[in-house]
């Protein structure tokens, strides 16, 4: 499946005086969400520089930071390149304030509850191209074929991001990318519950089917239920 649209959704020209930090953030998020999958090579520095609007030197520095964090490894010489590694969830420091953390979780799930159902409604209301329809269908297929929790959660994030990306709004895809990065990090901290996955799979399929059939109200309603279910798990299981 071509991931060009999803790559464009998470990588965009950086602005201001934080070019290096912004490149690390965007590339790291793309790896965590599975846009760049473990075992694959990152695009060449020239391509990444063009997408991020920075020099190859800045891209090289950002990749060096990702390498130090264990996100990627680099092989020199012919046939070499920057290989994406599997990313392990980061353990939170013990001194994190519980009240602040719960407020943070509440804030992001509330924001998600507004953004993602709206994106579903818009996507179902638009005359989608064949490429956009194929992207949504392929992302649903990836979910069904995922063989372990890490693979499933990355496929889950890509599915949600694909909905925003087919709407054609860079600001919407940027917001969706941020949401999925945060939600993905939270989900890494709770058990992989098969009952929840079964329910989520049914909702994913209903959302995709509703979008492809142009049923905007149904797509939005099912996504609202989906967001509410995830929010309930996070609030109940995270401390």
How would the blueprint of this fold be written?
Elements: H1 4-10, H2 19-32, H3 45-52, H4 56-68, E1 72-75, E2 81-84, H5 98-125, H6 130-145, H7 149-165, H8 170-187, H9 194-212, H10 216-237
Antiparallel strand pairs: 1-2
Can you walk me through this structure?
There is one protein chain. The protein has a two-stranded antiparallel ribbon. The mean pLDDT is 88. The chain has 239 residues and is mainly α. It has ten helices and two strands; from the N terminus they run ααααββαααααα. The protein is globular and about 50 Å long. The longest helix is centred in the middle third of the chain and has 28 residues, at 98-125. The protein is 68% helix and 3% strand. The protein has helices at 4-10, 19-32, 45-52, 56-68, 98-125, 130-145, 149-165, 170-187, 194-212, 216-237, and strands at residues 72-75, 81-84.
In angstroms, what is the radius of gyration?
18 Å
Helix content: 55-70%
Unreliable runs? none
* Head-to-tail CA distance between termini: 37 Å
Structural class: mainly alpha
| Main sheet record | 2 strands, antiparallel
Q: What keyword list fits this structure?
A:
single chain, 239 residues, mainly alpha, 10 helices, 3% strand
């Amino acid at each position: 499946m071509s991931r060009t649209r999803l790559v464009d959704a998470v990588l965009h020209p950086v602005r201001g005086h934080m070019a290096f930090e912004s490149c690390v953030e965007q590339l790291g998020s793309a790896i965590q969400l599975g846009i760049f999958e473990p075992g694959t090579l990152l695009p060449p520095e020239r391509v990444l520089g063009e997408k991020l609007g920075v020099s190859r030197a800045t891209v090289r520095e950002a990749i060096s930071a990702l390498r130090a964090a264990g996100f990627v490894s680099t092989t020199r010489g012919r046939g070499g390149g920057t290989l994406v590694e599997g990313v392990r969830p980061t353990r939170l420091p013990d001194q994190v304030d519980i009240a602040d953390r719960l407020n943070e979780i509440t804030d992001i799930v509330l924001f998600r509850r507004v953004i993602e159902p709206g994106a579903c409604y818009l996507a179902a209301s638009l005359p989608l191209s064949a490429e956009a329809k194929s992207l949504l269908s392929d992302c649903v297929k990836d979910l069904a074929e995922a063989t372990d929790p890490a693979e499933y959660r990355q496929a889950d994030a890509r599915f949600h991001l694909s909905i925003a990306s087919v709407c054609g709004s860079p600001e919407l895809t940027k917001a969706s990318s941020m949401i999925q990065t945060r939600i993905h990090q939270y989900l890494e901290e709770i058990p992989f519950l098969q009952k929840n996955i079964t329910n989520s799979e049914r909702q994913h399929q209903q959302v995709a089917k509703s979008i492809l059939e142009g049923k905007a109200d149904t797509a939005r309603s099912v996504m609202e239920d989906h967001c509410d279910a995830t929010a309930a798990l996070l609030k109940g299981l995270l401390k």
